[in-house]
């Protein structure tokens, strides 16, 4: 399961990562977020050596959600070299998320 991160470790784990990073902004009470958790887990398993996957709970990390203009959940952001390279919102097919992550 993807590790949950906070604002304190976001820069180090996401922005300074040497590989593409998928960040799942979610809420524990969000049904679509729960629907996507298995998909995110599958992607994490399949990209274990080539990418990092993290989760950010918007209820506890409001500053991160605000910084990255996350207005609804789930929102998936892909980062490469410290920059956002893709953004997807809502229930997304696994292949679409995988393409966003691996095309960077």
Keywords for this structure?
5-stranded mixed beta sheet, 104 residues, globular, single chain, 38% helix, alpha/beta
Largest sheet: 5 strands, mixed
* Class by alpha and beta content: alpha/beta
Give the CA-CA distance, first to last residue.
23 Å
Shape: globular
Low-confidence stretches: none
Q: What's the total count of β strands?
A: 5
Strand order of the largest sheet: 1-3-2-4-5
Radius of gyration using CA atoms only: 12 Å
Total DSSP helices: 4
Fold and architecture overview:
The two termini are 23 Å apart. This protein has helices at residues 7-15, 31-46, 62-67, 94-102, and strands at residues 3-4, 21-26, 52-57, 75-80, 83-89. Helix content is 38%, strand content 26%. Helix 2 links the parallel strand 2 (21-26) and strand 3 (52-57). The mean pLDDT is 96. The chain is built from four helices and five strands, in the order βαβαβαββα. With 104 residues, the protein is α/β, with parallel strands linked by helices. A five-stranded mixed β-sheet has the order 1-3-2-4-5. The relative contact order is 0.24.
